[in-house]
Amino acid sequence: AMLANKDATAFLAALKPVAERLIAIPMPKGHAGHAPESLAKIANEIGIKAERAEDLSSAVQHASGFKTSVLICGSLYLAGDVLQLNNQEPV
């Protein structure tokens, strides 16, 4: 998930050297974001294998099967939702 006012192409290009895959999801409610389909398309075009998930829970469940580290990024709002999903407080 990424806010609509951010440069998705530049952000994803910077991740290309370390990212093998991307799971794009919608921005949390109440925030204007890039469509997951658009993020996945940009990622695929720059060489990152990408797909989309309906929501954070689905993406986390899918990524739990990966045999590598998982980076959750794109939005601080998303980071807050991840902490909430894990019953964690921000530090």
The 3D shape can be described as globular
- Tell me about the largest β-sheet: 2 strands, parallel
Distance between the termini: 21 Å
Q: Give Rg in angstroms.
A: 13 Å
Number of strands: 2
Question: Approximately how much helix is present in the residues?
Answer: 40-55%
Secondary-structure element order, as H and E? HEHEHH
Give the helix tally.
4
Low-confidence stretches: none
Mean pLDDT: 91
**Percent range for β-strand residues:** 5-15%
**What is the topology, as strand order, of the major beta sheet?**
1-2
**Structural class assignment:** mainly alpha
How would you describe the overall organization of this protein?
It is built from 4 helices and 2 strands, in the order αβαβαα. By secondary structure, the chain is mostly helical. It has a two-stranded parallel ribbon with strand order 1-2. Helix 1 packs across helix 2 (36-46). The radius of gyration is 13 Å and the shape is globular. The protein starts with 7 loop residues before the first helix and ends in a 6-residue tail after the last helix.
Question: Mind sketching the topology for me?
Answer:
Layout: H1 8-15, E1 21-24, H2 36-46, E2 49-52, H3 56-63, H4 76-85
Parallel strand pairs: 1-2
What's a concise summary of this model?
The protein has 91 residues and is mainly alpha-helical.
Features:
91 residues, mainly alpha, two-stranded parallel ribbon, 4 helices, 2 strands, 41% helix, globular
